[in-house]
């Protein structure tokens, strides 16, 4: 076990992963959310995705959103892309941190991307070249890293093999997605440890869903391994964990609240973040599944 | 850090702590819930409390409920009492495991029990004598062990001092309540470690609320310390964590689901338990805040 980190970097994914899994909201509301998040002190924001508007109408206005957003120089913004066409749009829009997804389980990859994991990995190799040529950084997100809703358990060896491949192809960073909330602490330990066997110094980021209540337990287990990067979604935007088939992103304010009480710095002002969670709730027009939003921090000033 | 335990004992508190914090339900529904829980394989159930019906109308029919319930010889049932009058009722009803509460923070104790913590401790000393004379066992639950909604942080030394006192007075067991969901993993480590300094072999049970999403992280931290006893409430019965002022008991099926995936035995059949959570939901007539109830286990057969 490594020492508990003193600082953690949160990537706020509400504007992209969150809103992509909600009913479409107006462009202006997306810009307001993005701008409000830029003022929370969070270090990184996944701003938009450049996908086909027929596939994901929620992101059809990605260019307009990004053009209108106030870009804070203190924040690192990233965009998700499904292919080289999306990557080119992201580059043209000015992004220099770009994410692409592949699933550890073949069935999930086929359902999500309509091709095999191996085919996706070949595409990603070309995409990494495209991004590097343009001077951008490429992050590969390995979905279903802790379990697949179609195939069940996913062996850490399969996750590690994907990491080996994308690192060999030049990926700058790797993230691990608990796509449907199947991670539990020992699975986090198993995947992180297995990946580090071959790549002890690779920056890795964990993305948990709270579908079955385990998200903060998983964060805690990862912190004990010295992991310092986590995705989270303001208010838990992106599908209520209590609705069937919902994604259930862990709420940023729940992650930040626990980290601060543990004495771990995030740079985020929790009170400001809770205000933004309230805004997110207004934007989607329903109660969001965040306990810290509902109950407030454990002490009146949560920092 | 101790080795992770291979078995954990869950005490199901839905029939008492759960229903006490919901709108009153009919006696027959309480009996149905209790009997259904007795068939899940759970080892312990907090069945009822013997309190003044004006103070807590939800438990006014405790005698009838307990009389009608099928008592499974494989299950240890307990009752909560506020004072010696309630203790006598519990003894008369046939209970031999009886719980009594005191708050670690004086303000909470005064608001909850209308007397100081020290006055409560004196009452408890007499109550332990009464129970022991009758051949029953006494558990003292230390509420607000991880924080108080009125006083804020609670020093582990205060919790430890209460434990010292009640153990000296003969308490057979001690439990620690995270009454309003203020616990986080390092606070769990601090309280458990501090209490064990003076009482290394005392059986201790932890009772977490998921008000701010930390319940399973707290369970995980406690498991790493070798703690093997936890309270949990079927479906998360006992106040939705998303409603203001709600208690937010951690859902039994979320605890069991995580433990089983960690290879830790509980004796509980998760599928049966989820059926009972569904029954609990019907009984209270609203959606309960349990992710595992909503989404099902991570694999179709959760054991």
TrEMBL record, chains A, B:
Kindly list the biological process annotations in GO that this record carries.
ketone body biosynthetic process; L-leucine catabolic process
Q: Which UniProt keywords apply?
A: Lyase, Metal-binding
| Pyruvate carboxyltransferase domain residues | 8-274
- Region annotation (Disordered) maps to 1-26
Q: Provide the GO MF annotations for this entry.
A: hydroxymethylglutaryl-CoA lyase activity; metal ion binding
Q: Which Pfam families match?
A: HMGL-like
Similarity annotation: Belongs to the HMG-CoA lyase family.
PANTHER family given for it? HYDROXYMETHYLGLUTARYL-COA LYASE
Protein name (record): Hydroxymethylglutaryl-CoA lyase
| UniProt organism field | Planosporangium flavigriseum
Lineage of origin = Bacteria, Bacillati, Actinomycetota, Actinomycetes, Micromonosporales
């Amino acid at each position: 076990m490594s020492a508990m980190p003193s600082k953690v970097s949160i990537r706020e994914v509400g504007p992209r992963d969150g809103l992509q899994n909600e009913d479409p909201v107006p462009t202006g509301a997306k810009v307001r959310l993005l701008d409000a998040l830029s003022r929370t002190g969070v270090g990184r924001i996944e701003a938009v995705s450049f996908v086909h508007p027929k596939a994901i109408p929620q992101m059809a206005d990605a260019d307009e959103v990004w053009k209108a957003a106030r870009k804070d120089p203190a924040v690192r913004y990233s965009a998700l892309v499904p292919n080289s066409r999306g990557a080119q749009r992201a580059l043209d829009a000015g992004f220099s941190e770009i994410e692409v997804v592949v699933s550890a389980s073949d069935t999930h990859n086929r359902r999500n991307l309509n091709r095999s994991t191996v085919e996706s990995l070949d595409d990603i190799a070309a995409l990494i070249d495209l991004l590097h040529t343009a001077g951008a950084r490429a992050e590969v997100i390995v979905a279903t890293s802790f379990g697949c809703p179609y195939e069940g358990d996913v062996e850490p060896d399969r996750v590690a093999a994907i990491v080996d491949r994308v690192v060999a192809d030049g990926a700058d960073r790797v993230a691990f997605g608990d796509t449907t909330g199947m991670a539990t602490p020992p699975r986090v330990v198993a995947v992180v440890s297995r990946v580090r066997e071959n790549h002890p110094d690779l920056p890795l980021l964990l993305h948990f869903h709270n579908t079955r209540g385990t998200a903060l337990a998983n964060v805690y287990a990862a912190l004990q391994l010295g992991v310092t990067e986590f995705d989270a979604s303001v208010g838990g935007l992106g599908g209520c964990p209590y609705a069937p088939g919902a994604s259930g992103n862990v709420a940023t304010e729940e992650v930040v609240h626990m980290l601060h009480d543990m004495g771990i710095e995030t740079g985020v002002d929790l009170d400001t973040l809770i205000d933004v969670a309230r805004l997110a709730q207004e934007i989607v027009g329903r109660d969001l599944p965040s306990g810290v939003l509902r109950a407030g921090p454990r002490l009146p000033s949560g920092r």
